[in-house]
Amino acid sequence: MKKATLFILFLIPLWPWAVHAQQNRMWVPADKDKIYIRLAESGARFDADDLYHPGRPSFNDAVVQFNGGCSGGIISDQGLLITNHHCGYGAIRAHSTLKHNYIRDGFWAKSLDEELPNPGMYVTIVRKVYDVTDQVLQGVTDDMDESLRQSRIDENINRLKDTFRLPSWMDLEVKPFLYGNKYYAFVTETFRDVRLVGAPPSSIGKFGADTDNWMWPRHSGDFALFRIYADKNNRPAEYSEDNVPYRPVKWFKVSLQGVDEGDLVVVYGFPGRTRQYLPSFAVRHITEKVNPLRIAVREKALEIMDRHMRSNDTLKLMYTAHYARVANYWKKWKGENIGIRRARAVEQKEALEKELLSHPDASVAREAEEVLDSLRALYAALEAPDLARALLVEAFYINNDWTRRAFILYAMENEKPDRFEEKRSEYITRIMREFRTTDNRVSEELFRAMWEFYRTRMPREFRDSTLAAMDADSLARKIAAESILADSTKFLRVASLSPEEFQKALKNDSGYALARRLIQSYYGKIFPAYQSAQKGMNALMRRYVAVLEKSNRTRPLVPDANGTLRISFGKVAGYRPRDGMYYEPVTTIDGVVEKYIPGDYEFDLPEEFLKLYAARDFGPYAEDGTLPVNFLATAHTTGGNSGSPVLNADGDLVGVNFDRVWEGTMSDLFYDPRISRNISVDTRYVMFIIDKLGKAVNLVNEIQAVK
Ligand code: ARG
Ligand code: GLU
Question: Fewer CB near the terminus (10 Å): N or C of the chain?
C-alpha cells in the first residue's frame, strides 16, 4: 500500500505543478495569447477580442477604476455605474444629514436632477494596453548598475511617451510588472464628474458588517450606483451643471439568469497588490513575524474601542468608521495566517526552491542559488527594521488617537515658513476632524496600551531607552491634563498663534515633545534602516522571477497585481473551510432573514424589506421560489477588486465582486484553488433592492436586464 502511494507520487510530475500552483491569476488584457488559452478551456461564448481590443469597443471600455481604490462597471448607455456600497460609503455619508440620512435610509435619485455631485471623486477607464517591454528595456543590460539602469529606463519611457501624441483628454501611464521584467503602457481617460444615483440602506448594503466581513455564508447587498457625466462632446470634464450623462461605447447588460455551481465567471477590475512570487522565507517573515505583531496591536485597540462603544452611543458613533477600518485588515491577516498554514504554502515554496536548485539547466540552478542566498540575507537584515516600522505605524499612527494627530501637527510644525499661513487652515481642519471622531476616555486607554507595546515589542536597536523607561500611566495622565494633543480648545488657541509663538508653544508641550521624539525616531532611524535593508530587494526579485520564468517556459508567469486592469477567470464553487465541513456557493434571502436581529447595529433589516419577504414578493428576480443573494467563485482577486463587474459566459453582468473568504485571503501571497474564493453580490438581489425596496422605476427602466 505504502509502496504504491510512493510510486504514484513519483509519477506525478511535481515540477510544473509546483510552478502552476504558485501563479498569479490576474491576466493583463494585452496578453492575448495567454488569455486565448484560458478562454478556450473556460466555456466562454465571447472571445478574447470582446474582452479587450485596442481598435473597437470591448469589455474594458465598461470597466472603471473607481475613485482610486475600487472598481466598477458601466451598466447603461447613459453612463450608469455600479460599484460597492463600501466603496461609495464616504460619498453617501457626505450627503447624509439628520433630515436626509442616506446611510440609514438609502438614497434613490428619481431623475437626473436629483443625482448628487461628489467633489474630488473620479473614475478612470483604460482604453488601450500595450506591452512596451522591448522599448523600455532598450539598451538595458543585466550587468548594469541599478541607478544607471533606472535612468536608462526613464529616458526610454520619456521617449516612448513622446511617440504617442494623445489627445488632451487622455493620459498615458507606463508601469513596471514582474519587478521590472516587463513594462506595459496604459492609455486612459479620467472622468471627474461622478454623481451619486442610488444606495440601499446600510442595513442592506452593510448587512453583517464586521461580524460577517471576510466570511461565508454571506448575505450582503454591498452595491451602490453612480453616474459618469461628460461634457457636450462626451469627453471627460470637471464638474459642471452643463455636463450630461456620459455615453459609453460599451456597457454591460444585467443578467437575471443567475449562476450555478461550475459556471464560468470573469472578474474584470483593478486589483491592488499581490506578492505571489515571494520565496518561502519571505512568506515566513510576513506570516510569523509581521502579521502576529500587527494582529496583537490591533486586537488590543479593537478590544478597547469595542468596550467603550458598547457602553456609550456617542462613542459608538464617533468610532464606528475607524473601528471598521482597523478591524478589516486585523481580520484579514488572521485569516491569511490560517490559510498559509492550511495550504502548506511555505512548505510548497520550499519544495519549489529545492527544485530550482537542482534544475537540469545548470545555469538556472546556479542563478537560483545565488539569488536565493542573497534574498535570504536581505530578509534577515530586514527583520528588525521591518518590525520596528510596523510597530511604530500600528501603535502610534493607526491605533493611537493622540499620537496620530501628532503626526499631522509634526507636518504643520515643519511646514516651510513661506507656506505656513497658506496651509494653516488645512492643518487645523485635519486635526479638528481627528478631535471630533475621538474621545479622551478612549484615547487615554489606547495610549497606555500602545505604550506598553512600545516598551515590550519594539526591537531593541530601535527602542529609545529613555522613552521606554517612562511609565505609561503617569504619561497618559500628564497628556490628558496638559497637552494640546488631548484638548481641542487648547489646540485651536495654539494653532492660531503667530508662527513663532506656535513653535514656542509646541516646544513647551511635553506631550507633543514626547510624540515628536517618537516621530523623529521613525523618520530619522527606523524608516532609513528599513529603506536600506530594502535596497536591492527589487533587483533581486526581478532576477528571481526571471529564474522562475526560465525554469519552466511552458507557463509564462502572470504578473502580480499592481493596481492595473486585470481579468480573472473563475468557476462558481463551494469549498471546505475545515475538515468535515462543506460550504455551498450560493446564499439566499432566506439566510438574510435567518440572521435578522431587530435593532442590532449589524443585523437589523428595514421594515419594508421584511414585508416584501413575508409576502415573498421577489418580482421577476426569484429562482425556485427564493432569491439568491451572494455567491462564491474561484476567481483570484484582492483589495481594489471591490466593485468589479462579474460576467457570465455571455459577457453579461451576473454579480459585483466585494470580498473574499477568510480561509482563502492568503491568495495575496499564495493562491490555493481549494480554498481561495471571491464573493459577489448576485445582480438579481441588486435588481430586487432597486426595484422592490427602492422603487426606483427610472433605474429599472434604464438598466437593460436580460434573462
Ligand atoms: N473585506 C472587504 C474589503 O476588504 C470589505 C471591507 C468593508 N467592510 C468592513 N466591514 N470593514 O474591503
Ligand atoms: N473588500 C475588498 C476591497 O475593498 C475586496 C476584497 C478583497 O480584498 O478581495 O477591494
Answer: N
Distance of alpha carbon 526 from alpha carbon 142, whole angstroms: 32
Active site (annotated) includes residue 322: no
Q: Which tens digits make up the pLDDT trace of 487-496?
A: 999 999 999 9
Torsion angle in degrees (nearest 10) through CA of 213, 217, 222, 223 = 150
Ligand 1 atom with the shortest distance to the CA of 639: 4
Q: Which residues of 252-382 form beta strands (DSSP E)?
A: 254-255, 264-269
C-alpha distances in Å from residue 349, one per residue of 13, 353, 366, 383, 533: 16, 6, 18, 20, 23
Q: What is the pLDDT of residues 136-169, one digit of tens each?
A: 999 999 999 999 999 999 999 999 999 999 999 9
Indicate whether residue 642 lines ligand 2 (CB < 6 A). Answer: yes
Cα torsion 285, 289, 292, 295 to 10°: value is -80
Specify the pTM.
Answer: 0.94
Q: Which ligand is nearest to the CA of 211?
A: 1
Check pLDDT > 50 for residue 13.
no
375-425 per-position pLDDT tens digit: 999 999 999 999 999 999 999 999 999 999 999 999 999 999 999 999 999
Say if CB 192 and CB 238 are below 8 A apart: yes
Residue 289 buriedness (CB in 10 A; 0-12 / 13-18 / 19+): middle
pLDDT tens digits along 97-119: 889 999 999 999 999 999 999 99
Bridge-partner residues for 83, per DSSP? 224
CA distances from 556 to 70, 361, 553 (A): 28, 17, 6
Whose CA is closest to 179, among 275, 269, 35, 270? Answer: 275
C-beta 324 within 6 A of ligand 1: yes
Q: To test the ligand 2 pocket, which listed residue (24, 329, 638, 657) has its Cβ within 8 A of the most ligand atoms?
A: 638
The pLDDT value recorded for residue 418 is 95
Choosing from 76, 488, 642, 667, which is the catalytic residue? 642
Whether 692 and 609 have beta carbons less than 8 Å apart is answered as: no
Q: Cell 470597466 appears where?
A: 63
As a whole number of angstroms, the distance between CA 686 and CA 82 comes to 10
The minimum-distance atom of ligand 2 relative to the CA of 637 is: 9
Q: Which ligand sits closest to the CA of 324?
A: 1
C-alpha 348/C-alpha 145 separation (Å) is 33
β-pairing verdict for 70-74 and 63-66: antiparallel
What CA–CA distance (Å, rounded) separates 458 from 290?
Answer: 12
Element (H, E) at 356: helix 345-357
pLDDT in tens, 506-517: 999 999 999 999
* 209 Cα–ligand 1 center, Å: 8
For this structure, is 667 an active site residue?
Answer: no
Helix (H), strand (E) counts: the chain: 29, 20
Closest by Cα among 280, 284, 180, 214 to 562: 180
In the numeric block, the cell 530587494 is attached to 537
In which region does residue 536 sit, left (phi positive, over 0), alpha (psi from -120 to 50) or beta (all else)? left
pLDDT of amino acid 540: 97
At 617 the three-state DSSP class reads: coil
The atom of ligand 2 lying closest to the CA of 678 is: 9
